[in-house]
Amino acid sequence: MGSTGSIGAQTLDVIAQHPRELEVVALAAGSNEQALTEQAARFGVKKLALMRPPSGCSIPGGIEAVTEIATTPEADIVVVAVSGVIGLMPTLAAIEAGKDIALASKEVLVAAGEIVMPKVRKSGVKMTPIDSEHSAIFQCLQGYRPDQVDRLILTASGGPFRGKTRSDLENVTVDQALNHPTWKMGGKITVDSATLMNKGLESIEAKWLFSVNIDQVEVVVHPQSIVHSFVRFKDGSVLGQLGWPDMRLPISYALLFPDRLPNSLPRWDPVQTPKLTFEPVDTGTFVCLKLARRSVELGGTTPCAMNAANEEAAAAFLRHEIGFLQISDIVEQIVETHQARESSLDNVLAADAESRAQARMLIGPN
Fold first, then answer.
1. Mean of the pLDDT values across residues 356-364?
2. With a threshold of 0.85, does the pTM exceed it?
3. CA of 14: how far to CAs of 24, 79, 134, 246, 257, in Å?
4. Of 255, 224, 211, which is closest to residue 103 (Cα–Cα)?
5. Number of CB atoms found within 10 A of residue 231's CB
6. 3-state class (DSSP) for residue 100
7. Is there a contact between 135 and 111 (Cβ–Cβ < 8 Å)?
8. N- or C-end of the chain: fewer Cβ atoms within 10 A?
9. What tens digit of pLDDT does each residue of 31-41 get?
């Protein structure tokens, strides 16, 4: 799901390198009919769906069509690479159908981790992370129990505005926000990296993936993006996973786990990056990280509301409708005014819809 996006395209590159082990049996995307059709021809795929098909398109469309793709009988693994909470319902359907999940969409667990992870355990399926940070933690935890973990330490590049103050960010442009120093990603996730909301979402995702409390998840800025995250154990030992910043490596690990097969990816050599540095996050400037953690403290449907507000605000910024700092302002107002409810599926979907409507009111008319 999300085959025409950045992660989806790189996933297909990985699959093409391992034709004996991996085969594409179905593809779903947002609205890019041409790219999806080209991918289908390249990999010989007949089962296709678009979430928002363009007018006159013959490819099945809508959430039902995408959910049908996610539950394709021939599929063993469903790669969830859609941006946003829109992937939640197809992911739940895939889990209930007994599919293993390779997860790149943070928002699925941010909005509904309390619902998704019990279903994963009940169904007996595997959920392997594709995010480089969570893949690093997943790799470092192999052979260890959750109760042996002291801290999960997520690394952040710092984004395009590392070292800036809030006053520096008052007039930044969309182009500046999309100019990430390390990764080439889609628009929404790149804006999240610029606000550091991505680290807030990743912190919540880590809580659910690895069965830890939110106060056991820390974030440090690591501009070189070589160490993809650390695990500190209760005996004081620290393990990290290192490599060049290339998403095809964590994608390969997620799809082929527990095997590690040869590939054509460039090999990292320590002497090529002799100076690896780390620094604290400036949460006074990048308040989104605090807001994400605050949503967990408030509990219930608040993380879902926070995520919905962020999706709407980030999209409005990309449309040049609001300023960069207004993203966190809108998210903060939603987080602090949301009336948290128990995290049932109905409540999560209602909180998502309500918070989006409230955020759009704050954004104002186009």
1. 95
2. yes
3. 11, 12, 19, 12, 13
4. 255
5. 23
6. strand
7. no
8. C
9. 999 999 999 99
- Could you read off the pLDDT of 184-232 as tens digits, one per residue? 677 888 999 999 999 999 999 999 999 999 999 999 999 999 999 999 9
46-70 pLDDT, tens digit each: 999 999 999 999 999 999 999 999 9
Residue 180 has a CB neighbour count (10 Å cut-off) of 16
Question: Which residue bears the tokens 């959920």?
Answer: 127
Give 241's strand partners: 229
Looking up tokens 């809030």 gives: 166
Tell me which residue of 185, 204, 231 sits closest to 288, measured CA to CA: 204
300 pLDDT above the threshold of 80: yes
Question: Which token pair is 200?
Answer: 């807030």
Asked if residue 217 lies in contact with residue 297, where contact means CB atoms within 8 angstroms, the answer is no
Phi and psi based region of residue 344 (left: phi greater than 0; alpha: psi -120 to 50; beta: remaining): beta
How many whole angstroms separate alpha carbon 354 and alpha carbon 348?
10
d(CA 64, CA 56): 18
Q: Residue type at 227?
A: V
